[in-house]
Amino acid sequence: MDKIILDGMLFFAHHGVTEEEKEAGQPFEVDVDIFADLKRAAADDDLNKTVDYAVVYALVNEVMVGERFSLIETLAEEIAARVLSNQLVEKVIVRVKKLKPPIAGKINSVAVELHRGR
Q1: How far apart are CA 34 and CA 94, in angstroms?
Q2: What confidence tens digit (pLDDT) does each residue in 39-63 have?
Q3: Residue 45: how many CB atoms within 10 A of its CB?
Q4: Which residues are marked as active site?
């Protein structure tokens, strides 16, 4: 299976369990790996036969900044469902990272990775 990768999409959003996270917001990083058969698109050099990564970015942006969730698990699940709504997508991997999680101590990030398919 072929793969389209959107790596390191950065967003400032208001997801989290604590009131501070919900009100002040925080930075997130999102990666999306899309598995699809890209042979026809490559052979015909035709955008209509592939998954348009600009469209995927726009839907991730819509979820990240247009909605609010307590859990990054729910956030990742919503992104995965929207990506899978494209009939060309066979499988998707979504990674959502909180870059400044509310944890007492030094940590680079906290992340959730979901694997979803048809």
Answers
A1: 9
A2: 999 999 999 999 999 999 999 999 9
A3: 8
A4: 98
